[in-house]
Amino acid sequence: MKFLKPRSAAVVLFTAFFLLSTAYAFKVLPGNAPDEREHVEYVLYLSSHHALPVWNWPADRATWEARQPPLYYALEALVLQPFRNIPARWGLRLMRVFSSLFHLAAILLLWRAARALYGDNWSALGPPLLLAALPMFVFIGASVNNDAAADLSGTALLCSVAISIATRKPL
């Protein structure tokens, strides 16, 4: 009798990653993540103005991230919108936890890609476990920046290619 099945172990992995990234989101002090202040300012601008900022750097440091594609920031602004009146520190934590969901989704998609290539067995847990165990992946995922969305997009592409290879169907 086996103690744990691969799918159950995957659920444990996903839960552990989410709890760890949430702990990072709450424990890392504001301003200690790379460029987080500029990313937060972009989200706050979208949340308050409902329009894209004009990139005016170096004259205006607050618009530094305005050169980035707006999808991630717009999603963050939508999540933040109902909580406009909470203290800034809790708004930052909310944005960080939301950002970590992007990395959680990337790990889920990597597991799906590995299952397509290796089957539904213990081997398929290797790639998502390796990714979830990288401290920098957890740290960056638990901070406000668009790298989480880029990582998710790249993983979605990788997953679609892996499924295409495994099923021998072109994309």
Q: Tally the helices: what do you get?
A: 7
Instruction: Please indicate the percent range of residues in DSSP E strands (runs of 2 or more).
Output: under 5%
Tally of extended strands? 0
Largest sheet: none
Q: What structural category do the secondary elements indicate?
A: mainly alpha
> What are the segments in which pLDDT stays under 50 over at least 5 consecutive residues?
none
Helices and strands, in N-to-C order? HHHHHHH
Mean pLDDT: 90
CA-based shape: globular
What is the distance, rounded to the nearest whole angstrom, between the alpha carbons of the first and last residues? 40 Å
CA-atom Rg in angstroms: 18 Å
What is the helical fraction, as a range of percent?
55-70%
Structure, described:
The chain is an all-alpha fold and 171 residues long. Helices cover 65% and strands 0% of the residues. It has helices spanning 6-27, 36-49, 71-80, 88-118, 126-132, 135-141, 147-167. α1 runs antiparallel to α4 and α4 packs antiparallel against α5. The protein is globular and about 55 Å long.
What is the compact description of this entry?
The chain is an all-alpha fold and 171 residues long.
Descriptive key words:
171 residues; 7 helices; mainly alpha; globular
Q: How is the secondary structure organized here?
A:
Blueprint: H1 6-27, H2 36-49, H3 71-80, H4 88-118, H5 126-132, H6 135-141, H7 147-167
